[in-house]
Amino acid sequence: MKYTYYGQSCFLLETASKKLLFDPFISPNPLAKNIDIKAIEADYILVSHGHGDHVADLVALAKQTQATVIAMPEVTGWAAKQGVEKVHGMNFGKFTFDWGAVRMVPATHSSGLPDGSYGGNPAGFVLEVDGKQIYFAGDTGLTIEMKVLADIYNLDYAILPIGGNYTMDVDDALVATKYFYCDKVIGVHYNTFPVIEIDTAVALDKFKRENKTLLLPEIGETISL
C-alpha cells in the first residue's frame, strides 16, 4: 500500500485495487503549490467533516475523477447539490465495500459546510484493506472514546492531527497511541497556518523517546505502508 501526502489532512492511499483520497484541500494551500490536482486519480474520496480546509477541492476532484464520496449524509448531500453524482452517506458505523471495510468513528471537533449549512458530525475512519488496519482520526482533540478502538482493532498505522489549537498536538497524539496501542503514526494537520506550526525535529524526538515512529512525509512524497 502507498501513502502520498498532499498537505494539511489530504492524502492518497493506493491499495491493491483502489485509490482512496482523503479530505481534499490542495489548491488553496500555498504549501501544496507544486501539486497538480488535475493529475490526481481517485476511486473514492473520504471526507471527515465539512470545513473548508478539508473540502475545498472536493467537488472539483469528485467530478474530475468520478470518484464516490464517502462522508456524513450532510456532507454528501451538500456535494450532491454541487453536482457530484456518486456519493455514499454514512454515520458512525461500519460498511464493507468490495475493496475493504470502512468504519466511521467519532471525532471531537465541529463541522460546517462552505455555504454555512450544518455539516453533520465530525468523524474519523478506520479502514480494513489489504490485510492492514489504518485509523485516520480526522480533526479531533484527545478523547477517551479512542480507547474503544483497541477492543476492535489491531491498528497498523494511525494518521493523526498533530498541530494543536484546533486538534490534538504532538503530546496528545502520543497519549492517543497508548489508548489504541499503535506505535506507527503519520502526522497531518500541521504547519499549514501559523497557529498550527510545530517544530518537527522536536516532534520526531518525542516519538522516538517513547519508542514510537512518527512519519512526516513531505508534501508530494509517497511512502510505502
From TrEMBL:
Pfam families the UniProt entry points to: Lactamase_B_2
Keyword Hydrolase: yes
Domain Metallo-beta-lactamase: 7-189
UniProt-listed InterPro entries: Metallo-B-lactamas, RibonucZ/Hydroxyglut_hydro, UPF0173, UPF0173_UPF0282_UlaG_hydrolase
One MF annotation (Gene Ontology) recorded for this entry: hydrolase activity
UniProt keyword Hydrolase, yes or no: yes
Family: Belongs to the UPF0173 family.
Protein name in UniProt: UPF0173 metal-dependent hydrolase OC25_11585
